[in-house]
Amino acid sequence: MSSDEHDFSAFLPGLSPVDAHEVYLLARDVFVSSLRSAVLDCAETREQYYAAVSGRRLVLRVLHLISTGYGGTPKFNAPELAPPLWQAALSDYVHYDEDEKVHVITEKGRGVITRWYELVQPIKDHPRFAPLWAEVTD
């Protein structure tokens, strides 16, 4: 099997990769709808979700800055980001490229920030989550 062929039959019997992607998109839409409802309707759920997605916010900021091309800028080199950058490196989310003299996000780090975007973007305008979104992405 080549690197661009995948056998989905073990997980999704009878589905092609295109069909499997459609299932993923449908599940994602259901998740987003459920998430919005839960955040709007239940303060306890909202606070639990906030606690889950707000941890390590400065590490997430480091990952966001690197992944959007701001590594090495004054925003990135702010003193308050030195400890989270160290945490990101220890977690194998980033590494320092000796040749280029810049920090580079790893595949693991890209997965972390991508998942965070997917979890928070649908509710980023909610008053409870807007400041968190801004802190990580501005």
Topology:
Layout: H1 17-41, H2 43-54, H3 57-67, H4 82-90, E1 94-97, E2 102-105, H5 107-120, H6 130-137
Antiparallel strand pairs: 1-2
Tell me about this structure.
This protein is mostly helical. Helix content is 57%, strand content 6%. Strands 1-2 form a two-stranded antiparallel ribbon. The radius of gyration is 18 Å and the shape is flat. The mean pLDDT is 88.
Helix content estimate: 55-70%
Unreliably modeled segments: none
Overall residue-averaged pLDDT value? 88
Oligomer: single chain
Which structural class should the secondary elements be placed in?
mainly alpha
Strand order of the largest sheet: 1-2
Contiguous helical run count? 6
What is the gyration radius calculated from CA atoms? 18 Å
Could you tell me the number of beta strands?
2
So what's the overall shape? flat
Series of secondary-structure elements, N-terminal to C-terminal = HHHHEEHH
Largest sheet: 2 strands, antiparallel
> Termini distance?
43 Å
Task: Kindly summarize this structure in a few lines.
By secondary structure, the chain is mainly alpha-helical.
Any descriptors?
flat; two-stranded antiparallel sheet; 57% helix; 138 residues; 6 helices; mainly alpha
